[in-house]
Request: fold
Amino acid sequence: MPQLAVRIAALGSVALGGYFVGANIEKRRLLDILQNALHTDRLVLESVLDKRKPAEIFEKLSFGKVSAATPMSVSDSIATGPARVSQIMKYGFPGLDNVRSFDNYVLSYDRRNRVAHWVFEHLTKQSVKSNDQINRSKCEFRPDQSVHTFFRSDNSDYKGSGFDRGHLAAAGNHRLSQNHVDQTFFLSNMAPQVGKGFNRNSWNNLEKYVRKLTNTYVNVYCCTGPLYLPKKEGDGKMYTRYQTIGANSVAVPTHFYKVIVGESPDGNLDLECFCMPNQVIPDDVPITSFQVPPESIERAAGLLFFERIPRRQFSKINGRKQ
Reply:
């Protein structure tokens, strides 16, 4: 009998060990499948797998043909450590479609429109501080080689279009190193924007406003993206129409949004939301006139922002106490 017990215990140990080995192998296999299918940063996928069952992930994510996906180039130094990614995305991902993590920001890329769905940044007073070591003139707009050529935008798309290559993650937000600011010039971080009167004026003013928030808050989390909003036309019906530019048919958004969370030293959280039309805006129009309820942007974008924070937890939304 003792020998039988020992044999049973040994078999149990082998089975248990096999289970854990098999579970780890299965997790790695699932990570490989997800990464190949979504072309998403592996660190992001690992954080998702740690919190959700595989079945839930497959239920939430859809897969297309991915055999031709181009691996992210190591020479571009895009991969980041898990600590930085988790810090930027502290309050949740708005979506998980084609997520890419750069050294200092994270984006979700819209392969159909050749413009990001959203770009997420974490700003501090130090990260936006003027830095003499940074030389913006050294930066070059360049295609994101991690995006398959079918879905990639190119500088030639913008040439002669009349639109600026407008930053979503602003170059001025990333002054800790030359590499950080260089990475904001990938075309996956760009969208066609009206130049004079918008990108170089009102939108620039909004970017400066976000940076100034670091004087009030110890942490500022900013999500930026495009919108394609419907408009009532002569027949009384609503239509969603937008221009495309270049051989790659890069979509020209009708509007752009910024959803911002400020974290004060005492832990209080404030939320501000802006939606601006992609058109010439008079200089005397204050940026506060473009504040909108967060729900309006979420419905239009099909995304949920900062979903880890219950709305009742915000001290203020668009400057109004809750």
Observations:
- Confidence is low (pLDDT under 50) at residues 8-23, 51-79.
- The first helix runs from residue 2 to 38.
- DSSP finds nine helices and 14 strands in the chain.
- The CA atoms of residues 298 and 304 lie 6 Å apart.
